[in-house]
């Protein structure tokens, strides 16, 4: 380059710098443009187009930093520098941060708008030079076309590199406040639709949104609000805060949606809420997004070819109220909001699932909502983990009664059967409950009570209908009737192909050892039996409870018991319930036999005048005649009854022997009930008591006062038993107790008047309650545990011998050894749990001891 040429270049460059500074420093004066064009053309001719572009952008950056950026961030410094407590005061302010955001954006956008005009001046100069150079010897087209994008990138870079950390938080607060204000505007029409006719939902909301959200015309509350929000979003996007802005209003919409889900769901589980949440999404957030996207120019019709690649999930949707066919962007928002609504409601219901199941079946709507949510999100494992944790913390504790645990387990089965009919997740949830119940001694008894008692196992008789397992027995009976039809239907080849086409694999949470879910059936009774380990144990417990119930009856009404037995036979088989059926037949025969014997005895008394007056009438006696070989062992206690009663029993037994030869009656005099009427000075009191109580009080007909020893001898029971039983009459005020000749020999005297009875019964009211509780604890039939202990006694010598020879043995080894060698009568057929229970009894009796899981002889 020659010297003169270099001087001209320097002169042109100096002139370009001067004109650029004049252009950028001017207050809206663009008159420099005509003077700038020839200078730019001269520099481009010399090949300095790139240098021109870079210098101009650098000058723009310096001017933008000094004139716009610094002032822009100064609006937000008071909040950024404030403490946490002071920031709360900012947020409480009604007009914050709307005012500062609007003012700050207005100032910086005004400066940016002027600089964009300056950029266009330079672009025009470069394009003019290019147009005058037809041979395009100097390629400046790249510089002119890249100038505006480079400027936009510079603006975004400068703002993001100087961004205060609290600015995203300020944007989040702004959008939360504006959306909450918008939701309040729309709440009136939406809630009136909810309270009014639901069929008018679509039409009414369409009208409201079309009138209020018309962004092109009317000035209403909703329209102006969306315009203001849209302007802020547009300005922020122009400054390069595209992702930050979308994140801010997205999080605000999600926050508003979450609040609405919590508001609608609450703690009321009797009303479905998922449908209302979905309607609200279409009524508020989607309408706002539709208006916002339309304002920003991002709303492209779904059918338009300019929408680009579409998601395979975004199939052509139906129209939304007030929107019509949505754009793809709006459709993606709809899918996103619905998924979050499903997930939020799902998490809320899972966190309260324990309470929901406690209220089942009243809480069925909440269960249905949860089912739909899990089908949409597929997060079943979250339900399993959370619910198991709640069970272990709130239910499977020493303070919870076995009845409560069983009721909750039954409700859990029914609720989860609704959510997952295949039972895959019930297996995981139910296993901790079953393991815990196996360690409770009264589990079997409570299960049998739930099977047979209409109150669901509650002593108060106020159990939920959902807790009563009799309905499950009825359901099994209905299924049994349809078995043949189902079997034939399954043979249909066409149906088999349809079933194979609809086959789906088990979820990953499924236990592979349990079999395919297509073969799995959620059977409540089967799950209950699995807790016990064997249906034989349940049948034995039922047999004992049935015996106690039948022996305590004062009449022969057993229709409900027969119905229950028939249902149990369907589930457990007729052979298992054969002894129970014989027990019920005994009561039916007893009713008929009683009638025959009474008729026969009545004819005899009429034939022999004066015989009935000599004793008690035969009409007062109803006998339950049992076949002892088929009943559980009966608890017997020998007592001496009064002569008149003994004569009545003798006459009855003789007549029975005549009718049922060669069968004879063996009276269990301690069993049954006696109805007494005691008279005091013309007034009477009625009691229903056990035979031993009747025998005690009837002795006072002979004389008014008895000592403990004499009375015990007369009745034939031990002293301690007499003292325990006679306290019933003292608590009722019928007898009075006084010191006797010996310290342990008290004197009991019958009262003379009714006033004495009332006085004594008032004094002894608490004692009466205690006595009745104690009497209820006495059983007329040997319990299953007592029977098991008696049956296992024959194996005690085998166990002692094994431990003598081997020193110590584990439970499994003892069990297997007994099964191997005890094959003669009586053969060993007990379960591992029964053996463990028996060995625990030997340990309690200090015959054995345990050490590191091994049993050994006590030394």
Lay out the secondary structure.
Elements (H helix, E strand, L loop, with lengths): L2 H23 L7 H13 L3 H26 L2 H4 L3 H9 L5 H34 L9 H21 L5 H29 L5 H12 L8 H18 L3 H24 L8 H10 L1 H12 L31 H24 L1 H6 L5 H14 L2 H15 L7 H18 L4 H15 L4 H10 L17 H12 L1 H9 L1 H9 L22 H9 L2 H17 L7 H14 L5 H30 L35 H17 L14 E7 L2 E7 L1 H8 L6 E3 H8 L3 H13 L3 E8 L2 E6 L3 H10 L1 H13 L6 H9 L3 H11 L1 E3 H11 L10 H13 L3 E4 L2 E4 L2
Q: Total number of β-strand segments?
A: 8
Low-pLDDT segments, ≥5 res? 195-220, 304-314, 459-463, 483-491, 762-777
Straight-line distance between termini: 117 Å
Helix fraction by DSSP (H/I, runs of at least 4)? 55-70%
Structural category? mainly alpha
What is the makeup of the main sheet?
A: 3 strands, antiparallel
The Rg value, from CA coordinates, equals 46 Å
GO cellular component, one term: anaphase-promoting complex
Keywords: Cell cycle, Cell division, Mitosis, Ubl conjugation pathway
Protein name: Anaphase-promoting complex subunit 2
InterPro entries: ANAPC2 (IPR044554), ANAPC2_C (IPR014786), Cullin-like_AB (IPR059120), Cullin_homology (IPR016158), Cullin_homology_sf (IPR036317), TPR_ANAPC2 (IPR057975), WH-like_DNA-bd_sf (IPR036388), WH_DNA-bd_sf (IPR036390)
